[in-house]
Amino acid sequence: MKGEITVLKLRKVNIFLIICMLFLNAVTVFAEKSRDVNGHVWKKMKYDNKCYYLTGYFAGLQKTEEIINIEVESERRQKFAFTEPFYVYQIRNKIRSYFPDKRNSDLDMMIKLLNAFYSDKYNLNIKFDAALRIILARQKGDIEKSDFWLREARKSILMK
């Protein structure tokens, strides 16, 4: 009986975390209903809309991370030997890769960086979330990772 309850709780946590992952991937889709935000859309947006979009994007990511933390902490309180699953660790790392570090968190600077990124015609079809990850990795000094993600984003466009 006790084992069945534990399995049910684990399933509940797993389902919840899958929903969180889907939410993370859907943040940009819901913000721009009919199409993905890429360089073409970004360049047409007014400055205020770019601010609102970035603010909403970061708020969605922050809320997702908070929900994951609440669920993991709930499991820890209920189970003495609870070990956080590796995929939860991976989700957290992915979410954190979209956040600027404290010294580069100025919204105006983020907009300027995205504007500069999308000024390259080869980057115009790269989706917003990929562009954000690329510029943030570069700002954090991880040039190798940034270049890798840029190559992969451009390659995925060519494959379409």
- Rg calculated over all Cα atoms: 18 Å
| Elements, N to C (H/E) | HHHHHHH
What summary fits the major beta sheet? none
H/I helix tally: 7
Instruction: Enumerate the spans where pLDDT stays under 50 for 5 or more consecutive residues.
Output: 28-34
Question: Per DSSP, what share of the residues sits in E-state strands of 2 or more residues?
Answer: under 5%
- Strand segment count: 0
First and last CA, distance:
51 Å
Overall form: elongated
Helical percentage: over 70%
Brief digest:
This protein is an all-alpha fold and 160 residues long.
Ordered list of secondary-structure elements with their pairings:
Blueprint lengths: L1 H30 L7 H6 L2 H32 L7 H11 L10 H12 L9 H12 L3 H17 L1
Summarize the structure in words.
This protein has about 160 residues and is mainly α. It has one domain (about 1-160). Helix content is about 75%, strand content about 0%. The chain is built from seven helices and no strands. The chain has helices spanning about 1-30, 40-45, 45-80, 85-95, 105-120, 130-140, 145-160. Helix 1 runs antiparallel to helix 3 (about 45-80). The radius of gyration is 18 Å and the shape is elongated. Residues about 30-35 have low confidence and may be disordered.
Give me some keywords for this one.
160 residues
